[in-house]
Amino acid sequence: MKLIRKLLFPIVPIYYIVTWLRNKLYNFRIKPSTSFDFPVICVGNLSVGGTGKTPMIEYLLNMLKNDYKLATLSRGYKRKTKGFQVANNSSTVDDLGDEPFQFYNKFLNEVIVAVDGNRVNGVKQLKKIDPSPEVILLDDAFQHRKVIAGFTILLTTYNKPYFKDIVLPTGDLREPRKGAKRADIIVVTKCPQNLKEEEKAYFHKKIGPRNNQDLFFSKISYGNKVFSNTNLSKDLNTITNFTLVTGIANANLLVRFLKDRNLNFEHLNFKDHYNFLDKDITLLEKKELILTTEKDFMRLKHYKSLKEKLFYLPIKVTLDNPDKFENLVIKFLESSKN
User: Could you give the maximum distance between any two Cα atoms of the chain, in Å?
Assistant: First the structure.
């Protein structure tokens, strides 16, 4: 795969020009965009997957849910439905996609969870709901420029920041690096637990945030307990000889965390947003105990044959300056009322 991507390098300039021109057409309003008279917050990235958008959306939901009526809007990647869908108690992962289904399962009636490939239509449909949401969070919509978000949060990872990458197909960027200038906040995600000030200074220099941009650093921390579909929990250190199942863009952080705790496990690593096949379930049924991510858990938990052996490990995002981050978001929301 790496060899193929290298061989496709001659296409990189073409992809760069096409995406650069597309952005220019939106910048000059030649291609139409729609803005709204209520707060719309976009969370996205420049690269293809794996920057931590889902934990960031959940961070914002937890931060705002007590003070605002919230909704999330995603395209519903790999769902089997079409058009606008709102999550309810009969929704499945096939109806919504794994990440929206996770939002719904975690927040239930506290948050409206919707999917629509047409974000403009999705926002309009959400506002028809009674009572309608006061704030809409757009998941993975940085390149979806048909909607003008009032506030944009751009994510990039510590191990592969966008300033070290190039555009597709050889690199992983969906658009040129200059696209980062559209963000209000840039968050370097998945940082090491002992991130040093010198490293922060390095990222600040390389990213070069504008005067209207703020830079933050976030870490992922894992819990000490794992949870099942039957509300059963176990201390992580008490489980041994388990099978780790992942279908995410990058499982390295999780694998390293488990190895650092000297846990004995095998790792079945599937591609991101993987739809498990019957043969995969047959294989998993033979395993004694399965540990997976919360996102993968959403795709596996409806299999009755796995019910007693399937557990997930929750994660938590922490920011280096959470008060400032919250103040910036609240300031935007308050200014949107005027």
Answer: 60
